[in-house]
UniProtKB/TrEMBL annotation, chain A:
Pfam families the record matches: B3_4, B5, FDX-ACB, tRNA_bind, tRNA_synthFbeta
Domain TRNA-binding: from-to ranges: 39-154
Name this protein carries in UniProt: Phenylalanine--tRNA ligase beta subunit
Gene this chain is encoded by: pheT
Organism whose genome encodes this protein: Lactiplantibacillus modestisalitolerans
Subunit structure: Tetramer of two alpha and two beta subunits.
TrEMBL record, chain B:
Family of this protein: Belongs to the class-II aminoacyl-tRNA synthetase family. Phe-tRNA synthetase alpha subunit type 1 subfamily.
HAMAP family: Phe_tRNA_synth_alpha1
Pfam families the UniProt entry points to: Phe_tRNA-synt_N, tRNA-synt_2d
UniProt cross-references to CDD domains, sorted A to Z: PheRS_alpha_core
SUBUNIT field: Tetramer of two alpha and two beta subunits.
N-terminal signal peptide: none
Main location: cytoplasm
Name the UniProt record assigns to this protein: Phenylalanine--tRNA ligase alpha subunit
Cofactor(s) it depends on: Mg(2+)
Organism: Lactiplantibacillus modestisalitolerans
Binding note for cofactor: Binds 2 magnesium ions per tetramer.
Domain of life the protein comes from: Bacteria
Length: 805, 348
């Protein structure tokens, strides 16, 4: 909503710089997008009088003009506009002037003839193309006859105005008008505004009753008010310049005197009005109803629209002629030939108009206001004001009376609130005088009994109906700057993370200390990627109406997103990347639309985790590196159960020989391994290792009770064993056997070598372990250890076919 | 020669030998030769039997004195030589300390997490509980219970990803607040919650829009919560995130779930309030929205607005991070370029 500060002077005495006014509005009422100064940056643009205008000797469209710019000598300027003529007052950009958006005008020659400046059209002075009246769009702008040559041109065009561009919140529809804004500023600056008056003269001999018949076939809620006036003998023409200026500074294009009058009154009162060509209304008959399935209407913009049953339409003899509150129909449009006007002033239901505007993508000044609500108490006044203005501008007459399709009894709203409640909510200590004064400034009448206000809110503030609304009024007029700043008091509460939140935080720290950086990827992805790397099979949750094909489905796994991140990095020559993500995956649940949201933690590593540096070789990540990270992390969780890694070829996106499912006892909690080379290629990543863990499950699993174990005071004894063993025999099998046969004093088994290169027969590998024996209560005797160790060696040979070396 | 003279001679010769020993080995050799069991001093003491008995204590004391003196000289010489050797070694062991250290492998938290964590800690310190709601919510909780019925015009302000007509991706983390309200036992004290998390809007991704971003919403409800408390809280948030030197201003705004509603601006950190492109020449930057909980929201959760009241506020960590660090494209937060992620090293 653009508010002209010059127009505001009709209402209030505001001797305040526009920027200051804007800041005040912003702090007290609504957001301000900025202050527009149409002449900003433009210099040396003056009124010129065209003394002579001769055809250019070498051109069929250029003219050579001698232009009086208030100097001793006229300026010679070459002009190509079709409408340039001697005797006109025109806009002259002098030599070395700045116009429009940083354009400098210099002396030049046009086809050999000197041109000392330029005659300008409005768009050359920075006017938005959408605001320039159509009849002057194709040529230079002709200034009024009384314009004085040599004077700056800006005041003649309203370009010296300062316009405050307000961004109106949905609750402050009352400020979508000059009147509303004036009331607001009057409250802020404690003034009494001068409101516009209506000077309507009805033609006593011309009664509307026999000529217009209005019927409402919609319910009270949809059309609470519908009234029409009839204006006769109107001469359609361009509006006077003062009116055009007010409209274009308000962001509206001047059209003709009738449309301009309705737009002007719209700006004044915030009341949308619509003018019909009365002679196109057969039998002067109008009815309003909801549209029927399959009906069509061609709107003003020439578009043929199929109407919806939620659209309110204005009809002539039950044929739609206008989309209520949004756009008129082409058939009954006011044209140059129109002489008689049927003028509509109505109130339509906000939700209905909102739907129509949305469904037909028709957002107009009218629909915007109806959607936010309008002042029901001002509809007839605005209708009268527009009728009077049309009659005056078009030399017409207003028929006597109003054709009323529906009227309503508009009553002010009464709200009661105690002074104590206001202070209680605001944390202030305001007295009765202060608060009463605020209500007075707002124009709300009050009665006070027992420290409690009964406030009568005028219909122009339809947003106010609750005590809380009044508290807001008091707060903002009193000033948020003047509120004290305190912190809540009352019964203290303890703020701490719950177990899940704490474990998520700890998990993130563990991952970071292991060298992985946190990524946050998109939860929405393609259906294929959403399903990829899923720990468990599940249906996916899909958007009903996605914005793009890339973001349609909620993920079941975090890995796909991490691979996208890796690909992004690889494409930018970052080949050493270690990322983890902690976030939700979305498993569908039977019979439910809402999925089960499960916290997962996943990692993806490609290249070397150790950055290249002097004296240190890069260490390309491998299965055992990422498994070490996972194992270290799982250890930090202190799970009571036993963590197992089981080779798995069941994940289609994973390398079948380099992937392990991770179990805690018998519960599957995740997997770790290398991404399948084919998958890696599809995701455009290099060799990549990943893991994904069900964090929600890990958090729920029982934790080991932690208890101090006394450290043995007695020395330990170690024995090393190296063996040749079948390549297919796993470390887990060897360790399990050693544990089973190791005896009571076997404390630790450490693998220190794995080898299957030279000197190892095919199908075999060499493994070497250190076994540590210790007794908690006594010094171990060498013989005891030797006996226990022999048992292990025998078992390895007999049960696993190991060849001890 | 008397024994005494012999001892004096041994002492003087020994001291000279010790002084001239230039390596530790020689010092040790001198020690063995002089003070060993077969050494000359032991030899001298063996000759005591020829001395008159009354002279013996005197000679014995003098022999001990000579032995101690020699021992002290040996210790001193040894430490001198050790120190010299150490000095020589140290001189040879000089490094170029400006060579880079070997990198320790260390990851780091995402910048958005850093901001969320900082605010979580701030608010937990003030007795708030952290609440995590679901990302897939019912329309009823995301909108209707927050005083946004189906046809409310403010719904245009936030275009929504729907799964079905009643289920959606939450557009605000306050979607969980109606549940907090209805589940809270006010006999145990006030409700103070902070809800950080992911939210979604039906937007086309560009430099300033993202279909996925984060929100932190706070809610306090008790018998005596004031707008002044809200103001104080917002000032604390702004100062925690941006620094003490910045001013905060409140402006009226509109949110369906609060009345009165305000937006909070902080002084533009780029121009210190003078006006620049970042703050659109206003000197202020909008950082959060807030207000006093709308009585309808309380009523819908079964709470009597005549007795209880409270405030709510919401802010966007993505926007905070953009403002605080001058990030010019919101997509950076979700592309996870390591060159981007590694720039924000603070705390987890
Ligand atoms: Zn700035």
């Amino acid at each position: 909503m653009r508010i002209s500060t010059q127009w505001l002077q009709d209402y209030l005495k505001l001797d305040i710089p526009a920027d200051e006014l804007a800041e005040k509005i912003e702090r007290t009422a609504v957001e301000v997008d900025g202050v527009i100064r149409p002449n900003a940056g433009q210099k040396k643009v003056v009124v010129g009088h065209v003394e002579t205008c001769e055809p250019h000797p070498d051109s069929d469209h250029l003219h050579v003009c001698q232009v009086d710019v208030g100097e001793a000598e006229p300026l010679q300027i070459v002009c190509g506009a079709p409408n340039v003529a001697a005797g006109e007052n025109v806009i002259v950009a002098l030599p070395n002037s700045w116009i429009g958006n940083h354009t400098k005008i210099k002396k030049s020659k046009m086809r050999g003839v000197k041109s000392n400046g330029m005659l300008c059209a409005l768009d050359e002075l920075g006017f938005d193309e959408k605001l320039v009246p159509k009849e002057v769009a194709d040529g230079i702008f002709i200034l009024p006859e009384d314009a004085k040559p040599g004077e700056p041109v800006f005041s003649y065009l309203g370009m010296d105005d300062e316009i405050i561009d307000m961004s109106i919140t949905p609750n402050r529809g009352d400020m979508l008008s000059m009147n509303g804004t004036a009331h607001e500023l009057a409250a802020i600056y404690d003034q009494t505004p001068t409101m516009p008056t209506v000077d309507l003269h009805e033609d006593a001999n011309d009664d509307i009753d026999d000529q217009l018949e209005v019927r409402i076939d919609a319910d009270q809620r949809d059309v609470p008010q519908y009234k029409m006036r009839l204006i006769k003998g109107v001469h359609i023409q361009a509006s006077p310049l003062w009116l055009q200026i007010r409209l274009w500074n308000a962001g509206m294009r001047p059209i003709n005197n009738v449309v301009d009058a309705t737009n002007y009154v719209l700006m004044q009162y915030g009341q949308p009005l619509h003018a019909f060509d009365y002679d196109r209304l057969t039998d002067g008959q109008v009815n309003v109803r909801l549209a029927r399935e399959g009906e069509h209407l061609t709107t003003l913009d020439g578009e043929d629209r199929e109407l919806l049953p939620t659209d309110l339409v204005i009809c002539n003899q039950d044929t739609p002629i206008c989309l209520a509150g949004t756009m008129g129909g082409l058939e009954t449009e006011v044209t140059d030939q129109t002489t008689n006007i049927a003028l509509e002033g109505a109130v339509f239901d906000a939700v209905k108009i909102r739907k129509t505007a949305h469904n037909h993508d028709l957002h107009s000044e009218a629909s915007m206001r109806y959607e936010r609500g309008i002042d029901h108490g001002m509809t007839e006044t605005a209708l009268d004001a527009a009728a009077a203005m049309i009659a005056k501008l078009g030399n017409g007459t207003v028929a006597r009376g109003v054709a009323v399709g529906r009227d309503e009894d508009v009553q002010p709203v009464t709200v009661t609130i105690s002074l104590a409640k206001i202070n209680h909510v605001l944390g202030t200590d305001l007295d009765l005088t202060t608060v009463t004064d605020i209500f007075n400034r707002l124009g709300f009448s009050t009665t006070v009994a027992d420290q409690t206000y009964t406030v009568v809110v005028p219909s122009r503030r339809w947003d106010i109906h609750l005590p809380a609304d009044l508290i807001e009024e008091v707060a903002r007029i009193y000033g948020y700057d003047n509120l004290p700043a305190t912190l809540p008091t009352g019964q203290p509460t303890i703020g701490k993370l719950n177990e899940t939140q704490q474990m998520i935080r700890d998990s993130r720290k563990m991952m970071e200390s292991a060298g992985l950086t946190q990524a946050i990827s998109y939860s929405l992805t393609t259906e294929a990627k959403a399903k990829a790397f899923a720990l468990h099979a599940s249906d996916v949750t899909k958007l009903d109406f996605p914005m793009s094909s890339e973001r349609t489905t909620l993920r079941l796994s975090l890995i796909a997103g991490l691979l996208d991140d890796l690909a992004y990095n690889n494409a930018r020559k970052e080949h050493n990347v270690a990322l983890y993500e902690e976030g939700r995956v979305f498993y569908s649940q039977p019979e439910q639309v809402r999925p089960k949201e499960i916290e997962h933690i996943a990692g993806a590593i490609t290249g070397s985790m150790v950055p290249k540096s002097w004296g240190v070789a890069e260490q390309p990540v491998d299965f055992y590196a990422i498994k070490g990270i996972v194992a270290g992390y799982l250890k930090s969780l202190a799970l009571a159960g036993n963590v197992r890694y089981v080779a798995s070829a069941d994940h289609p996106e994973m390398h079948p020989g380099r992937t392990a499912d991770i179990y805690v006892d018998d519960q599957l909690v995740g997997f770790v391994g290398e991404v399948h080379p084919a998958t890696a290629k599809a995701y455009k990543v290099r060799e990549t290792y990943v893991f994904e863990l069900d964090l929600t499950a890990l958090i729920a699993l029982p934790k080991a009770r932690q208890q101090y174990q006394p450290i043995s005071k007695f020395p330990s004894i170690t024995r090393d064993v190296a063996m040749l063993i079948d390549d297919q025999t796993t470390n887990a099998a060897v360790v399990a056997l050693m544990r089973a046969k190791g005896g009571a004093h076997l404390q630790r088994i450490e693998l220190f070598d794995v080898y299957n290169g030279e000197h190892v027969p095919a199908g075999k590998k060499s493994l070497a372990y250190t076994l540590t024996y210790q007794d908690q209560n006594a010094t171990l005797v060498d013989d005891e250890v030797t006996q226990a160790f022999e048992k292990v060696l025998n078992a390895l040979q007999t049960e696993l076919g190991a060849e001890i070396r | 020669m008397s024994l005494q003279d012999r001892l004096t001679e041994l002492r003087d010769q020994g001291l000279a030998d010790i002084k001239s020993a230039d390596v530790l080995k020689k010092v040790n050799q001198v020690k063995v030769e002089l003070l060993g069991k077969k050494g000359p001093i032991t030899e001298v003491l063996r000759g005591m039997r020829d001395v008159a008995p009354e002279e013996r204590p005197k000679i014995g004391a003098y022999a001990n004195e000579v032995r101690d003196k020699l021992q002290a000289a040996i210790d001193h010489r040894r430490s001198e030589l050790e120190q010299a050797a150490l000095n020589k070694q140290l001189a040879a062991e000089q490094l170029d300390v400006t060579l880079p250290g070997r990198p320790a492998v260390q990851g780091q938290p995402h910048v958005i997490t850093q901001i969320i964590t900082e605010l979580e800690d701030l608010f937990m310190g003030m007795g708030y509980q952290i609440v995590d709601g679901d990302e897939v919510e019912e329309d009823y909780y995301n909108f209707e219970r927050l005083n946004l019925p189906k046809d409310h015009p403010a719904r245009d302000m936030q275009d929504t990803f729907y799964i079905t007509k009643d289920v959606l991706l939450r557009t605000q983390t306050s979607a969980d607040q109606p549940r907090s309200l209805e589940n809270h036992d006010f006999s145990k004290g006030p409700l103070k919650v902070l809800s950080p998390g992911r939210v979604y809007r039906r937007d086309t991704d560009d430099a300033t829009h993202s279909h996925q971003f984060h929100q932190i919403e706070g809610l306090v409800v008790d018998k005596h919560i004031t707008m002044a408390d809200l103001k104080g809280t917002l000032i604390l948030v702004a100062k925690t995130l941006f620094g003490d030197q910045f001013d905060v201003r409140l402006r009226p705004s509109y949110f369906p779930f609060t009345e009165p509603s305000v937006e909070a601006d902080v002084t533009c950190f780029n121009c210190n309030g003078k006006g620049c492109a970042i703050c659109k020449q206003t000197g202020w930057i909008e950082v959060l929205g807030a207000g006093m909980v709308h009585p309808h929201v309380l009523e819908m959760s079964g709470i009597d607005p005549e007795v209880y009241g409270g405030f709510a506020f919401g802010l966007g960590p993505d926007r905070f991070a953009m403002l605080k660090y001058g990030v010019d494209d919101i997509r950076n937060f979700y592309l996870n370029d390591v060159r981007f992620l590694s720039q924000f090293y603070k705390k987890g």
